[in-house]
Amino acid sequence: MYPELFRIGDFVISSFGVMVAIAFLVAYWISSLEYKRKGLDEKLLSNVFVAAMVGGIVGAKILYLFENVPIPEIIRNPIPHLFSRGGLTFYGGFFGAVLLVWIISLTSKVGLWKILDGLAPGLAIGHSIGRIGCLLVGDDYGVPSDLPWAMAFPKGLPPTTERVHPTQIYETILLGILFVLLWKVRKKQAPDGWLFSMFLILAGIERFLIEFIRSTSPSPIHGLSLAQVIALGLIIVGIIKLVQVRELKAKVKKGNK
Description:
By secondary structure, the protein is mostly helical.
């Protein structure tokens, strides 16, 4: 674990912060290649990424606090909680980013699904890189395990001296594979929304399964975590959109005959 890369007085450069920055930069670069291929304005991408960064970080922190800190405590001491080390959730960031990107789509008059399709591969690799930051800071690890590669996080968030599943590594690998898959099929000719739908379905399945070996926030549904409920919702959204895309494609094909 390397939660702090270096410190200058009271100013700390954390490994998590650096990995998040790298994740955004790589995601931006990958997305810029897709936007260029699709003939979309690079200025649109810049606006989308600023919105995604702001919405993502704020949303990630808000959902984390909602899951882990009593609301009265947040109200009494908001600053320490809002600026605490770590404490970001992917789904909070995802919804916050999508909300602001949707606003950008309205102002730019470019379809939301077209924008999201261009972001899908970059989002997958960015999430993969971000999980390396979680590993370095000792966050989002799994349940106890006696497997040879199990790890302890004595300075983690929270600390544990018990060996656990390094689910951050599992997700880094699985999301990396998802990126490769999306990158290979991205040139397929199909109506807007199909590629991001694939991301929602496959990333949702990955998260749903990984949650079985993680200790995370419970949901109102017995036996499922909150993240699993959200993942199921995203899988359903992805399937519905993919069905709509296929129906539209079939209708267009029929009309061209």
